[in-house]
Amino acid sequence: MSQIVVAASTEAPAGEFRRGWSVVLACFCTAVFAWGFGFYGQSVYFADLHQTRGWPASLIASATTVYYLVGAVLLTRVHRAIELLGPRLLLASGAIVLGIGVIGMSRAQAPWQLYVCGIVMAAGWAATTITAIATTLAYWFDRRRGLALSLALNGASAGGFTITPLLVALVHRMGLEQAVLLLVPATLAILLPIVMFGVGRVAVREQAAAGVDRHSSGHMLRSLHFWSVALPFALALAAQVGFIVHQVAFLLPHLGSDSTGIAIAATAIAAAGGRLAFAPVIDRVNQRAASAASFASQAAGLALMLAMPDRPEALYIGSVVFGLSVGNVITLPALIVQREFPPHSFGVAIGLSSMVGQATLAFGPTLLGLARDATGSYDAAIALCIALQLVAAALVLFRRQD
Q: What's 36's DSSP letter?
């Protein structure tokens, strides 16, 4: 595998960034691709497949659930895959596999094909998202890992306001198949050289500090302290992902195609802005309190849209308020784990936390789809999201000790 050095805890923060800036850039670009096609793009695929194939919302959403569940299982193996392949090959191959899955999904003509392509996408998603990025950065950053992770994960938001609006516009003009076939190879052509040249080879110094650990997964899963992090974020992410997958379908009848694309982009831009505003202090604040505030603000944005669905300004404002915390909800679990767990437990703790979160959020799109099919509107679905966010806000404030 690639030989990787980790940042020593005694190294000055500026020194960490001098050595690791190209890794942050590579992780940023990987996040653009992964979240653009594997996260925000789900909303576009969902709306188009529902409209053009005539498949029920719950059926399409269940394929998304399979995608997230398989990805959840694979997330627990990411730190082992990094040991075997090195982060450079893992990120590059993961992007290629995700792209193949997206192209396949766009061309699905039967429901079973959605599930097959979802499984392929899940392998690529696991190798290019939060666990892979956080573990990669842990080799280069220690004292400013929170800032490095925040900057890298701004690529997730950038994927939302670049790739997703392009998808919406191109799907409207040429259909989903051609839009995906155009965008996926084009973005891979930009991403792969950045990853291959940006994530370099250096000598191993201390695997434990990078989060490559041998801590027992069973012990971690029996820990109340672990669940005090994993459970609230799992509930919040179920609500967040559920809404994002259905956001296009919810907004289209009220805003139309072009304005819906603007609202989606506004959500992603707000996510980037929220993360950037928080990045300078993210290593110093009470991260549990910040998490609770993030969950509550998303509930407020959803409540505004639920209360005034026929007011375009309310839908725009609600999308922005919701979006402000999207990025931080993704970033904060890894930082709480880094602060509250010993260094040798980082890899297994963040892998298992991501697994629990993704296994739970996998049911978010399906639950919202079922609520939509049963009631004929999104009112009950959005109310469920609000409830999940408020419960998560209460739970995260209580740190359980074993």
A: I
